[in-house]
Design a protein that fits this description.
globular; single chain; 47% helix
């Protein structure tokens, strides 16, 4: 099975036909897709003016989409190195049992669904690397009351999501499933109170 870098080379190789290059870009999303496969593809197509069903898109646009994905992956891999070093220090200090923060990270290892968007058409508009940078910054600070990506305060608890953890606070502004470790207990309580469709502010 080809890895991300091998697939990226196929996207860039001008000797490949456009259908293969497009297919390789889609396959990259099986290795790294911050919003989930469908939402990340929708995001890349929208930002780089690629027809979602176009089998022979402009090669320059394919490469531009790939470069955005690679930039985000670089941000996330650097964070994973930092995370692994922290866990190693904690284990050395006797803290063997991971907490809820680590449980969230376990589900996003490799970068799939880091900023999960259950609705493929509802996701942040900013570059992926910028979105991940905001998410990582929030994970490094004390919990807050707003979405770490868009700053929105309208969070709604959603059930039956199509990605583990299957439920949680979704930002009505940018569409991401907000990681619970970045929110205060009060913010989570208000999001749960809004789960019946009555949007509540957690500001």
């Amino acid at each position: 099975m080809a890895g991300f870098r091998s697939l990226a080379r196929q996207v860039r190789d001008p000797r490949n036909d456009l259908a293969l290059r497009r297919y390789s870009l889609r396959k990259c999303l099986e290795r790294f897709a911050p919003y989930g496969h469908r939402a990340t593809w929708d995001h890349l197509c929208g930002r780089h003016r690629i027809g979602p069903e176009d089998r022979a898109p402009d090669p320059a646009r394919l490469v531009a989409a790939l470069e955005e994905l690679e930039a985000a992956r670089t941000v996330w891999l650097a964070y994973e190195v930092e995370f692994a070093a922290r866990r190693k220090r904690e284990k050395h200090a006797g803290l063997r049992r991971p907490g809820s923060f680590d449980d969230w990270h376990r589900r996003t290892w490799g970068g799939f669904g880091v900023a999960w968007c259950d609705d493929p058409g509802a996701h942040p508009a900013e570059p992926l690397a910028e979105v991940l940078g905001r998410m990582i910054a929030a994970l490094r600070t004390t919990p807050g009351t707003a979405c770490p990506v868009c700053g929105g305060s309208r969070l709604v608890w959603s059930q039956d999501l199509s990605h583990e953890p299957w439920f949680g606070p979704v930002c009505s502004g940018c569409g991401i499933l907000v990681p619970r470790p970045v929110l205060t207990t009060e913010a989570l309580t208000r999001a749960k109170a809004a789960r019946r469709g009555e949007l509540a502010s957690v500001a």
